[in-house]
Amino acid sequence: MTTRERAYAKANNQRAAQFTELWVIGRPEDIAVMVRAASASGRLVYLSSPSPMGGDDNRQRRYLRLRTH
């Protein structure tokens, strides 16, 4: 591995370490509380639209990207 390749790999790892990505499954009310807390703390970067779980299950699935620092 060349010096340039090592520097590039290190920079990519540092950028990836800045965020935590989660799939959250739960009732809409529970997810809303979690999203409000993440938003109030300034850590929420991205929130997907709700996806129903399907069938007679009333839970939702949402993708969250949170800042780690």
TrEMBL record:
Domain of life where this protein originates: Bacteria
Ranges where the record places region Disordered: 49-69
UniProt protein name: Uncharacterized protein
